[in-house]
Write a structure and sequence with these properties.
307 residues, alpha+beta, 5-stranded mixed sheet, 4-stranded mixed sheet, 5 helices, 28% strand
């Protein structure tokens, strides 16, 4: 074989080797470049997350929360439907328009009554880790019971709301306990501290539950507190036990009420100027003459549609 042919073959192999090596180096460069690019993308994602927070995570949490709330609402609707299965079909429907602040009554499709009303104000109140929304519920209900001269038993949130408006704190009076009437703090027993020095006669009175009512105990005598009146001790609003006269308010709900369940109802009011506005804590308020007329034509089982 001529020498030049061998040299040519060796040169070709050399060139081919260089090409393969260059290709390998280029491939390695591309891999390194892609790795660095991915690292930069990850770094940018981390910087965005640190600046704006974990939006995706927040969206997932929000979605899960909404799903849980929807399931809870569906369960509540099912419970209400089950509870009203035994109510009679009266052929009469009470319609409440929260937008118009109007109440209409239709009997077998014919409108037989119309009046103004007040509905929920839509504000919120945080109590014990949960948020209460003071809004009139939207949906289909039934008149579950009808009351004359109903008593209002304020929920705990009423006392919390009142105390916060006045810049005061809230204390709960439980049976078996006592509260210093001048400070709102837990009272000492009569045989402790200064009580033992003065025999309790010269010390301040305490609030406590006696029997089924709230009294102010002066040591040598007790006085029952008036029913349906807010109790204030020092800088605190006192929450009396449910079932005591002090937790029962007359005339707040007017003279008539249609009870819809879950604490909601259609009733009168001691604030007639509120009619036509969104000011209630969720119930539907009516003027005295209008609620009396509505009461006279309503029946247990009437369908109530609120929208």
């Amino acid at each position: 074989m001529p020498r030049w042919v061998g040299l040519l073959g060796s040169w070709a192999l050399f060139v081919l080797g260089i090409g393969l090596a260059s290709f390998a180096i280029a491939g390695e460069y591309i891999n390194t470049r892609d790795t660095k690019r991915l690292e930069r993308v990850a770094m940018i994602d981390q910087m965005i997350a640190e600046k704006h927070g974990d939006k995706a995570g927040q969206l997932r949490d929000t979605e899960q929360k909404k799903t849980a709330e929807l399931s809870q609402l569906q369960g509540k609707v099912a419970d209400v439907a089950k509870q009203t299965d035994d109510l009679p079909d009266t052929g009469q429907t009470i319609v409440v328009s929260t937008e118009e602040h109007k109440i209409y009554v239709r009997n077998h499709g014919e409108k037989i009554f119309e009046a103004g009303c007040a509905t929920g104000k839509g504000t919120t109140l945080a109590v014990d880790g949960r948020t209460i929304v003071f809004d009139t519920p939207i949906g289909k209900f039934h008149v579950r019971s009808m009351d004359k001269d109903p008593l209002w038993v304020p929920p705990d949130w009423h006392y919390v709301e009142m105390a916060r408006k006045e810049g005061m704190r809230v204390v709960r009076l439980n049976p078996g306990s006592s509260i210093d009437a001048s400070t709102g703090d837990p009272a000492k027993k009569r045989d402790e501290g200064v009580w033992s020095w003065f025999g309790g006669k010269d010390s301040g009175p305490v609030l406590k539950v006696k029997g089924n009512t709230v009294v102010k105990d002066y040591g040598d005598h007790v006085e029952e507190l008036p029913p349906g009146k807010v109790i204030v001790a020092g800088g605190a609003v006192v929450i009396p036990p449910v079932g005591t006269p002090q937790r029962q308010f007359k005339n707040v709900l007017g003279h008539f009420r249609l009870e819809l369940g879950d604490g909601y109802g259609i009733h009168g009011t001691d604030e007639p100027d509120s009619i036509g506005r969104s000011v209630s804590h969720g119930c539907v308020r009516m003027g005295d003459a209008d609620i009396e007329k509505l009461y006279s034509i309503s029946h247990v089982g009437d369908e109530v549609i609120i929208y």
